[in-house]
Amino acid sequence: MEELIERSERAARLIEDYKGRVHIFSHNDADGIAAAGILCNALLRKKRRFQVSILKSFRESVLEDVFDDELIVFCDMGSNNIRELKGYGRKMIVLDHHIPHESVNAEDILHVNPHLVGMDGSKELSASGVSYLVARALGDNKDLSYLALVGALGDKQEMIGSNRSIRDEALENGIIEITKGAKIGGEDLLNGLTYSVDPYFDFSGEEDKIKEFLNELNIGGEIFSLSEEEMRVLCDALTLKLVKHASPDAIRSFVGEIYSIRGDGVKNLLFLMDLLNSCGKMGKSGLALSLCLKDLSVMEEAKKCLMNFKIRIITELKDLKKRLKRGDNLQYMKIENKGVTGEIASSIIRYISPDLPILVLNEDKKENKIRVSARGTDKLIDDGLDLSITMKISAEKVGGSGGGHKIASGASIPTGKEEKFLEIADAMIGKQIR
Fold this sequence. Notes:
Layout: H1 2-17, E1 22-27, H2 30-45, E2 50-55, E3 71-75, H3 82-86, E4 92-95, E5 109-112, H4 127-138, H5 145-154, H6 161-172, E6 176-182, H7 189-194, H8 207-217, H9 228-242, H10 248-254, E7 255-261, H11 269-281, H12 285-292, H13 299-318, E8 325-326, E9 331-335, H14 341-352, E10 358-364, E11 369-375, H15 378-382, H16 387-397, E12 401-404, E13 408-414, H17 418-432
Parallel strand pairs: 1-2, 1-3, 3-4, 4-5, 9-10
Antiparallel strand pairs: 6-7, 8-9, 10-11, 11-13, 12-13
Domain DDH: 22-136
GO molecular function: exonuclease activity; nucleic acid binding
Protein name: DHH family phosphoesterase
């Protein structure tokens, strides 16, 4: 941790000493947007000029329009693109937590990543956590700790290691409150369960059935207003629904610490995470960044984004049985809804069909590419699964690129190469988990 803090402090000094504008590039999921939001807050407090660009994935072409006087900062991406970035010969900062697949010496690039100092960036610190360490070195920014937790929860990380330290800091400084209960987003139980995809229930998306369910339990209102007995009854009833199909780790993690943000604005940390992720994936990253800056004037529009996004996912999941295919060592599904690939993969592996790794493929006709999201479970990882390596090698063999974490990775491959890609990935996974 000390070495990571030292690297973060070096990044903060570089930002402080740089006289030009700071240009932040970040990923369009909850972790990437929270990471960018943390830096936006810190830079605003320093009265620094900055610009933010939110991306679906790293593209070298984004650097073509960067001004010469800008300091470039990548959040939640860049660790596997150091070789390409090195060629630009200019100062850059990479704040990431994905597994770097090669070691590249680049003097102009300050690379801050927990994996580089022996920490597990897939479990104990996300990109927003790395950004928070930099922001904390820039000034009194401990009040931004809740955004680091938003990113960690968005990436399904555990509250261990550095995440635990940030969580404790947020609690000690009165930024969050912690209770125990069911991990459900939304403003209230009806809203949270209706649009719930993680966890995904058999009645997700069906408001009338959820009303009936809650009426039978004689429970309603905000999740943080429930008594201990009401929370126990709710947890038991929902867990019974999950045990039919969900993975052991999904069931185990469903009940635990739930976080509320003190002060004005969004109270439920999981709800804020959902809002950031939904807006980012729906191409409304400006709304998400506004929420990170506590601009509540965008709340109604952000909630509409969330509802539309969740409905897309639930619609795909309800139609799952006819479209889920199985290979020898993996299962896969092709969809046409943009921006929901990762969420569908996560819901399938955690709550519907957890026995084999899932790959969800989505064609981007405009770019003539197939976007792939791959997900595993803790058990599959224990058995030897490494989706980061699988996605990287399988994609490269068909002219694409990929990478990420052992349990959650992605790839981009040329259209028409998906069958060969699946064949290679299936064979690789078979060797890993046997």
